[in-house]
Write a structure and sequence with these properties.
Layout lengths: L1 H18 L7 H13 L8 H28 L4 H14 L7 H17 L4 H39 L6
Helix pairs in contact: 1-2, 1-6, 2-3, 2-6, 3-6, 4-5, 5-6
Length: 166
C-alpha cells in the first residue's frame, strides 16, 4: 500500500508541475495532494508542520493565481474580456501543434477578447493583451516554482525515509 501511495503521490506532484501552466489543472493543489499522500504512508512519519506550511503556501498561491492576471490586465488598461480571452486562448492553444502554442494562444486570446470589448481601439487592445499575457506569465512562473519546491520536498522526504526501497 505504501508503494501505491508513493507512486500516486509522485504522479500528483508531476501533474501539478504540468498544471502550473494549464488553467484546467490546479497545479499547486495537485502537488500538495502528492505531498499529503506521501505523509499518509507508514514509512514516513507524520510532520504536521510541513503539511501545514505547504497547505498555507498552496492556498496563498491559488488566491494569487486569480489576482495577478487580473491586476496585470487592469494595470495595462484591459477589461474582463481580456482575462477571459487569455484563458480561452490558452486552452485552444494547447491543441495547436506548434511548440508553446498555449503561450501564443493566451496572447491572441487576450487581444481578441479586448477587440470584442472595443473593436475600434487596436492600440489599447494590444496594450491590454500584453498586460493580461504578462500577468499570466508571472502567475504561471510563480506556480511552477512552488510546484518544483514541492517536488524537491517530496523527493527529499521519500529519499531520507528509504523504507520504501529496502
Amino acid at each position: 500500500m505504501d508503494i501505491l501511495l508513493l507512486i500516486l503521490g509522485f504522479v500528483c506532484v508531476i501533474t501539478g508541475i504540468i498544471g502550473s501552466f494549464l488553467p484546467a489543472l490546479p497545479g499547486p493543489g495537485l502537488s500538495w495532494i502528492g505531498i499529503l499522500l506521501l505523509y499518509l504512508t507508514n514509512a514516513v512519519p507524520n510532520n504536521y508542520w510541513v503539511l501545514g506550511i505547504t497547505l498555507a503556501i498552496t492556498l496563498l498561491i491559488m488566491i494569487l493565481d486569480y489576482i495577478i492576471p487580473a491586476k496585470g490586465t487592469k494595470k495595462f488598461g484591459g477589461s474582463k474580456y481580456g482575462v477571459w480571452g487569455t484563458n480561452i486562448g490558452l486552452i485552444i492553444g494547447l491543441f495547436i501543434p506548434i511548440p508553446f502554442g498555449f503561450i501564443i494562444g493566451a496572447f491572441l486570446g487576450a487581444f481578441l477578447g479586448e477587440l470584442l470589448y472595443d473593436k475600434d481601439d487596436h492600440k489599447r487592445a494590444l496594450k491590454a493583451a500584453t498586460g493580461s499575457f504578462l500577468g499570466f506569465l508571472v502567475s504561471s512562473f510563480m506556480k511552477f516554482i512552488v510546484c518544483m519546491i514541492f517536488l524537491g520536498t517530496f523527493l527529499y522526504v521519500s529519499w531520507t525515509n528509504r523504507h520504501f526501497f529496502f
